[in-house]
């Protein structure tokens, strides 16, 4: 068993965690990043990225994360391949234990464990991810300009994504397995008033249809949830919008979570309910969920951590001087 110590311990290695590492390293905090079960975060499963600032051409998600990782290491970050199974946030330094027994201690802790989109769980859905099937209209809607697309879901996210897609597609179909939405009334009013959106009630996706070769998604087989009757629609894009799972299981009972199990932070900051613990990226952001906003909050977390340590050092010196 080895104990690793640092001024800033970061859990998660997506855009949020690596941005925090870059800023933390430049501030002299010699951060350690524990990469977790999905090094690089959700961008490692994304192919074309066209909306990350700084690149005029389409780039690849895995490549972008490799570059972020290399930059973090270049400025002094240590990257550790481990999965944390236990945390102790009752005192500083905070203590995390990996599944192999290694111990990680940090004077501050940045939680950047992200969130995962919820999927329908169909084999055909999995086979067509990135080939017409997506869980982020804001990320991928641009690729379906002028094409017919479908959104699956009935909450705020589904309605918002359907409305967003009308910026690119003249024909958006919103598929919901019930006969009414859970979305806020004002969003429903906007949706029903939009001529570019058609709602299919009491329908669920039975299969995503593959056109073969490089064609990708060509349609959906739908099942009526009341009668069981089958039907088919032709679409070139399918957006699953049934929510996200923030990766907060490890921290339940240790930091305050909101009603949707995201880590709660003070407005305008990354500070959690535990002094010295900060959260950034999709683990605390259920509104924007973009790589660039995750990176921005990673920067915020590093600056918040640096200021926390500076204040703690000042208090220590003040007490010593008395």
UniProtKB/TrEMBL annotation:
CC cofactor note: Binds 1 FAD per subunit.
Reaction catalysed by this enzyme: [thioredoxin]-dithiol + NADP(+) = [thioredoxin]-disulfide + NADPH + H(+)
Family annotation (InterPro entries): FAD/NAD-bd_sf (IPR036188), FAD/NAD-binding_dom (IPR023753), Ferredoxin-NADP_redctase_2 (IPR050097), Pyr_nucl-diS_OxRdtase_2_AS (IPR008255), Thioredox_Rdtase (IPR005982)
GO MF: thioredoxin-disulfide reductase (NADPH) activity
EC id: 1.8.1.9
Family, as annotated: Belongs to the class-II pyridine nucleotide-disulfide oxidoreductase family.
Protein name: Thioredoxin reductase
Annotated source species: Sphingomonas hylomeconis
Biological classification of the source: Bacteria, Pseudomonadati, Pseudomonadota, Alphaproteobacteria, Sphingomonadales
């Amino acid at each position: 068993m080895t104990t690793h110590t640092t001024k800033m311990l970061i859990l998660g290695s997506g855009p949020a965690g690596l941005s925090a590492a870059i800023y933390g390293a430049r501030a002299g905090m010699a951060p350690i990043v524990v990469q977790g079960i999905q090094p690089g975060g959700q961008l490692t499963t994304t192919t074309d990225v066209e909306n990350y600032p700084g690149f005029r051409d389409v780039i690849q998600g895995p490549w972008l994360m490799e570059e972020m990782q290399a930059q973090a290491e270049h400025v002094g970050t240590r990257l550790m391949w481990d999965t944390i199974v236990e945390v102790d946030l009752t005192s500083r330094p905070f203590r995390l234990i990996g599944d192999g027994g290694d111990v990680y201690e940090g004077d501050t802790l940045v939680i950047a464990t992200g969130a995962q989109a919820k999927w329908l769980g169909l084999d055909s859905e999995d086979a067509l991810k990135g080939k017409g099937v997506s869980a982020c209209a804001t990320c991928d809607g641009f690729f379906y300009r002028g094409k017919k697309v479908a959104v699956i879901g009935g909450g705020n996210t589904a309605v918002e994504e359907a409305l967003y897609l009308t910026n690119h597609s003249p024909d958006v179909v919103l598929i919901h397995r019930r006969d009414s939405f859970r979305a806020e009334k004002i969003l429903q009013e906007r949706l029903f008033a939009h001529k570019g959106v058609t709602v299919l009630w009491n329908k669920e996706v039975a299969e995503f249809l593959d056109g073969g070769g490089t064609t990708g998604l060509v349609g959906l087989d739908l099942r009526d949830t009341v009668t069981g009757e089958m039907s088919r629609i032709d679409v070139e894009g399918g957006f699953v919008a049934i929510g996200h799972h923030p990766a907060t299981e490890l921290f339940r009972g240790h930091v305050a979570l909101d009603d949707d199990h995201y880590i709660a932070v003070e407005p305008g900051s990354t500070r959690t309910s535990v002094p010295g613990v900060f959260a950034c990226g999709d683990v605390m952001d259920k509104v924007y969920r973009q790589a660039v906003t995750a990176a921005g909050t990673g920067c915020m977390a590093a600056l918040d951590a640096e200021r926390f340590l500076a204040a703690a050092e000042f208090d220590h010196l003040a007490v010593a001087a008395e």
